[in-house]
Specification:
The chain is built from 10 helices and 17 strands. It is of the alpha/beta class. The strands form 5 sheets. A 6-stranded mixed β-sheet has the order 4-3-2-1-5-6. Strands 7-8-9-17 form a 4-stranded mixed β-sheet, with helices on one face. The structure holds zinc ion (3 copies). One zinc ion binds next to loops. The site of one zinc ion has 6 residues, from strand 8.
Length: 369
């Protein structure tokens, strides 16, 4: 276990809200709530909402029946006031009363539209913006404890990939293989499988193909992109590409170019390098191999308590990398009707270069058909 200083996070969020000119942050269940106070509450129709005000103490508004759960979470040990509401009370008015006089509030990025609108009705005339502008700034710079948690997640998904070759055989369907992988994701140290992509043969040309009833055939290339969430709440996400028998010389040449592009993009990671530069290196490298038109998505995304979060590794994102930022580097090529490939690692920007969390070999994994 890695201890987390939730009080420091709350103080930073409160100060950030003040700097952003917000009178309050209103945080409903989701990754922001878990990040700020360790409360992994299930999003439900009843309102649970952490109210953070610059210069004031935070209050957790919760249904009375959730008080025990809130107190049992790390939030309960922080000395945060818990204001409960009974089934017949109006929790939105309760929140409105806590932020009386506010002109502008930040709402958790994943807040349900029904709650956004109920808060608007309870606080007419108050500007609503996303709290992400404050909290994403914090969440995208990982502490050493968070990097350790991401490493645990990466180790767990590495162990799953180590078992994938034994699951691949001519005649097995993507769905059968995917079911086995989902079980392994949990068995190897996640609390749940978040996604399982087994994209064989021509299905590999669709980056987010999940699984289908297509049976594996000799000569297939198979893109396996999988991830889950660990008990600490951090996500894994790793892609390796497998070949069931000989995928052909043209494929092998393209794969070699992809491997070089993924390595080149990883090597350029260091503090101060713009996110878009990492994307450009991958894109230029694939372009030089004639594969530029077939690399149809950004190079990567941040990862932490969510699989996709800031910073995004994409053209147009001039944000400079900083020590502790964690993100995927996952170039691929997708040839419609034929095949696809992707190589994906989670990389942390270290003080003098990349720290690659996934350690499975990046070569095409050849499996006897
Ligand atoms: Zn994706
Ligand atoms: Zn992935
Ligand atoms: Zn990814």
């Amino acid at each position: 276990m890695h201890p987390v200083d939730f009080s420091a996070r709350l103080a930073a969020a409160s100060a950030g809200a003040g700097r952003a000119g917000l009178d309050a942050l209103l945080i409903t269940p989701g990754p922001d709530l878990r990040y700020l106070v360790g409360y992994d509450a299930v999003p439900l129709e009843r309102l649970t909402c952490l109210v953070i005000r610059p210069g004031g103490d935070p209050t957790l508004v919760a249904p009375a029946l959730e008080r025990a759960a809130a107190e049992a979470s790390p939030a309960g040990g922080l000395g945060i006031a818990i204001a409960t509401w009974q089934e017949t009370e109006d929790p939105y008015a309760l929140v409105g009363g806590l932020v009386a006089g506010a002109r502008s509030v930040g709402l958790a990025d994943h807040m349900w539209a029904s709650k956004v609108l109920a808060l608007r009705a309870a606080m007419p005339g108050v500007d609503q913006v996303t709290a992400g502008r404050v909290i994403n700034e914090m969440r995208m710079r990982k502490s050493p404890a968070e990097v350790a948690a991401l490493q645990d997640a990466a180790d767990a998904i590495d162990r799953v990939h180590a078992s994938v070759p034994a699951l691949l055989a001519v005649g097995r369907t993507e769905r059968e293989v995917g079911r086995d992988i989902a079980e392994l994701i949990v068995a190897e140290g996640h609390v749940r499988a978040d996604f399982v992509i087994v994209a064989s043969g021509p299905n590999g040309a669709s980056p987010h193909h999940e699984t289908s009833d297509r049976a594996l055939q000799a000569g297939d290339a198979i893109v396996v992109d999988i991830g889950g969430t660990t008990h600490q709440g951090y996500c894994s996400d790793e892609t390796r590409t497998y070949a069931l028998g000989d995928p052909g010389g043209e494929y092998l040449a393209a794969y070699a170019a992809l491997q070089a592009a993924q390595a080149a993009a990883t090597e350029v990671v260091r503090p101060g390098v713009p996110c878009e530069r990492v994307d450009e290196v991958a894109r230029d490298s694939l372009g030089a191999a004639g594969l530029g038109d077939f690399f149809i998505h950004r190079t990567g995304h941040g990862i932490g308590l969510e699989t996709h979060e800031e910073p995004y590794i994409v053209e147009g994102n001039a944000l400079g990398l900083e020590e502790g930022m964690a993100f995927s580097i996952e170039p691929g090529f997708y040839i419609p009707g034929a095949y696809g490939a992707r190589i994906e690692d989670i990389v942390v920007c270290g003080a003098d270069g990349p720290i690659v969390l996934n350690r499975r070999p990046r070569d095409l994994v050849m499996v006897e058909p």
